[in-house]
Amino acid sequence: MFDSNNKNWKRFIIPCGIALLFLTLFLDFSIFSDNLNNRTLAQEQKFIEEALEKNITTCYCVEGFYPPNLNYIEREYGFTYNSTKFYIDYTFIADNLRPHVIVLQK
Length: 106
Description:
Elements: H1 2-63, H2 70-77, E1 86-91, E2 100-105
Antiparallel strand pairs: 1-2
């Protein structure tokens, strides 16, 4: 009779163990995927900041003034970014003063 109960116990433990293993793997993958997404967004933000700085400097060197707004950089220098993911605060000060630029994730 003890063997019969032991077999029933094994029939219960093995499926629960497998389900627990798959749940653990799924959670690990979800956490890894979320971390990877956050790192990718941070790298994309850094790339946007560097591209903006390069275009602002290029505009000043070529044209002799800083770009008056973000649309000017987009139109004249082909700058693009994903506006659904990022917000760019572009504060123009004067033709001869470098604008203040902040790139934020939405």
